[in-house]
Amino acid sequence: MREADLPGRSVLWRAVGGQRRDVALGAVLGMGHQTGEALVPVLIGLAVERGVVDGDAGGLLLWLGVLAVVYVGLSFSFRFSARAGERASVTAAHRLRTRLIGRVLAPEGGAEDGRLPGELANTATEDAKRVGAVTMALVVGIAAATGLAVGAVVLLRISLTLGLLVLLGTPLLLWLVHLLSKPLERRSATEQERAARASGVAADLVAGLRVLKGIGAEPAAVARYRRTSQESLTATLRAARAEAWQRGVVTILTGAFLALVALVGGRLTARGDIGLGELVSSVALALFLIGPLSEFSWVYAELAQGRASAARIAEVLGAGRAVSPGGPSDGAVLRRVEGGLRLSGLSYGSLREVDLDIAPGETVGVVTTDPADATALLCCLGRHADPVSGAVELDGIELPALSLAEVRAAILVAEHDADLFEGTLLDNVTAAVGTHAAAPVTAAIAASGTDEVVRALPDGPDTAVTARGHSLSGGQRQRVVLARALAADAPVLVLHEPTTAVDAVTEAGIAAGIRDVRGGRTTVLVTNSPALLAMTDRVVLIEGGRVTATGAHEQLVHDRAAYRTAVLT
Question: What is the value of pTM for the model shown?
Fold first, then answer.
């Protein structure tokens, strides 16, 4: 067993172990069903022996009656075995899907790194479904093994030669089927990887459709998706060919094995070693064995695909955490957030040894000449990443010493590209506070200019908003996002370019609104907007990853050429 196989196999075992009750019930019922199926040829042989060979009409009726009872039992055992197996499959897939979503949405992050949203969605749907199907495959596999065992025992009682032929030939056949499943497992892994990539690219392109149309990049986007989709199609066809080849070869091997069993049985009857009824039973058992052997082919295909999908799921579940969960290991607990922020020698991404003190209740603007500096700063303030060196402190306590829940309740980072959710406009604004907080919500709507949006919509605040807010214009969407951030009334609010999609008059009104609503609360505006910077207490200029100047907006415009270039051009 390779080390690389261990995480995927762990996912498989946990999926099966979580449904062991249903798997056990389905397996027991399936074993009973296969036992009954294997006994049907025996009962037919007995009926032939009594009715045809011995001419015993009473014996014929008796065994036909027993056969009828067995068929009733077969009906019920199959139905409830399939129900238990399907319930185990669906439930296992659901639980895996829940674990995946929980990992992707975990506050510590990290699972989404290097993966497109559509790719993660494919893993949570198709891969989880395939791993869940392994539980059903186990139920079927155990039942099929029981059918083979019962058939072999019956054949041993009829003829030692026939029984040994089945007992020795079946393991060899199953080993060959296992070898034939290896190419399918490899190609299934590639198929799922390419399909997930195609889904991720499609979701990415749909999300940026307006931008693509605006810059006339539709042909390039279509070409990109066509290439990715073609790669996915090629991988799917290769996997389908591998599966068809495997099943075809297995069918040939199975047919040859059963023909051998029938041939040996016929020769034994010709020599008088077994009777007519036993020959009928032997041939019928040989035909019956087609079912279990074919089911083993399906089981191996499901296991191969399940192992490939389990490995992909294990990669997401085992992804490294972007940050540690944190916690008051040294007894540090935020009892009341004052809102003081301190960055001490902070280095992360493009930032280099940044020192910055922000007093409680202060409104500070941050201007960066490189967008990468702003991104790195937002990551550290929201604790989506920890600095390589230095620290971020809140009221004198380093952020890692606090739980993530405490940090993110105290510091709200409202990023420039934040999305809206499906629901009403009011639902989006009150997402973090609930509709009971009427006063903060009303103030936030007015301060962000969202009241103008409300008046322009047909149903006002109850107007339905589509996923990601695509039913609104860019400026409307940006104002609703800002209203949501202001309504949360966080002790420390970090806003990143909140007014890039609005006109100058609206921007000036929003600047005044933010100042009024956030009075007495710590606010950090990471922006190059002169209107917003003009209403701050002071502005910090970051050039080349370092703080190079601090002062009032007017002063920096007059004294610093780099500042003038950043905010006035």
Answer: 0.68
